[in-house]
Hints:
Structural class: alpha+beta
Strand order of the largest sheet: 4-5-7-3-6
Distance between the termini: 29 Å
Number of helices: 7
Number of strands: 9
Amino acid sequence: LLVSQWEKKRMSLSTVSKALKTLEEDLIVGRNDIIRLLQPEKLLGKLSKNYSPPKITERIRLKVLGDSGTIRETLLNLSEELDLPLAATGISSVGRYAVMQRGDLLSVYCPRLELLIERLPGSRTNRFPNLELIETEDETVYFDARREGDFRWASPLQAYLELMAGDKRDQEIAEQAKSFILTELKRKRS
Length: 190
């Protein structure tokens, strides 16, 4: 699911070419017939250094009826029914890529909150919410979101970047997400 259906302008080929040229000059990638990643750790460092959090237009906290599995399933069904991109934030997804205890609050990115709010069985509250909806049209938060069972979780890269932008504890956990990413890259090269 891509946000581009919401009439966002696509990235131009010249922009991609310029980025690849810079990465090639920095010896992060090599280009012959194919583009090869040469220094994944250096790339992760540059991505982290240049990371900008998504532009958030609205944030709503809700107490939604049902257990966490039911809530995720409801959100996934609404996402598919409404053809609406939806993915857990990197922080909510971190348990898939690192060992980290999180509370019961599931935070989810979505480009059009009003479409979800009217269909969710629950009420707005800041007292013991179990769901946080974050409105953003930033396509990067939906990129490589991974469906696992009854939900779409942020990519390991998104989790890593969000953690690196956090406090010292989050940055320590980001190292686990980084190891997950590097291990996954090695496995795919084999």
